[in-house]
Amino acid sequence: MRFIEEIKQDLIKRLEAALAMAKKKGTLSYEVLPAYVIETPREKEHGDFATNLAMAMAKEARMAPRKIAETILSELDITGSYIAKTEVAGAGFINFFLNHDWLYRVPAVVHEMGEKFGSVELGKGMKVQVEFVSANPTGLLHMGNARGGAIGDSLGNLLQFAGYDVEKEFYINDAGNQIRLLGKSLDARFLQLMGEDVLFPEEGYHGDDIIETVKHYRAEHGDELRGKSQ
After folding, report:
1. Maximum distance among all alpha carbons in the chain?
2. Percent of the chain whose predicted confidence (pLDDT) is above 90
């Protein structure tokens, strides 16, 4: 359950009901309700929410924003809401201060939803596929290789938590032309270290890491592959 969004939507309904009442009484005149925002102020002393509604309506209502704000608040019904106090600030902002009653609902909902608490239906079941880039099998590993898997898996989990139907696909890059060239490169270096005069494949991997890999292999397994290489 999205408590903050729920409170904002309730506030929108109450503000627009206040506008409709002011229009009915003739204290505010407008034809089209302009776009406006309800946001969280940067300064805590400005309340929990603030809206630019009065300033957005100034041209349409042909009235000073502060006067519009005062008119809206005079018709605003906060009965049964979480609003504890309202005020007009600055050029015509309307600030809203909440009571703490909504906080008392949170523990019960957390207990009821368990691990699903905080999840949303933003994705509405849309299918998405998260593809993880595999570590380069022909070069040295680095932190980026490890980070890619963790980020990919986490991104998939977040999308799933947001209501998407997620399929994760991690590429295990252990086949294809790169692997064939790696095998030829290792084979050639192995034979060269055995003292054989073999031509290193032009399209092979010429880095020193290939030589080091073969040396490590020989240190552990000796020359058991001699005569078996293709």
Report:
1. 101
2. 51
pLDDT at 101 over 70: yes
Q: What is the pTM of this model?
A: 0.57
- Matching residue, tokens 């490590």: 216
Q: Which of 18, 32, 104 shows the shortest CA–CA distance to 69?
A: 18
Q: Outline where the chain has alpha helix (H).
A: 3-25, 53-61, 65-75, 106-113, 143-161, 177-193, 208-221
Look-up of token digits 């940067």: 42
List the one residue out of 124, 109, 161, 115 whose CA is nearest residue 1.
109
Report the Cα 194 to chain-centroid distance in Å: 54
Contacts of 10 (CB under 8 A, 6+ apart): 81, 82
| Distance in angstroms (rounded) separating the CA atoms of residues 32 and 30 | 6
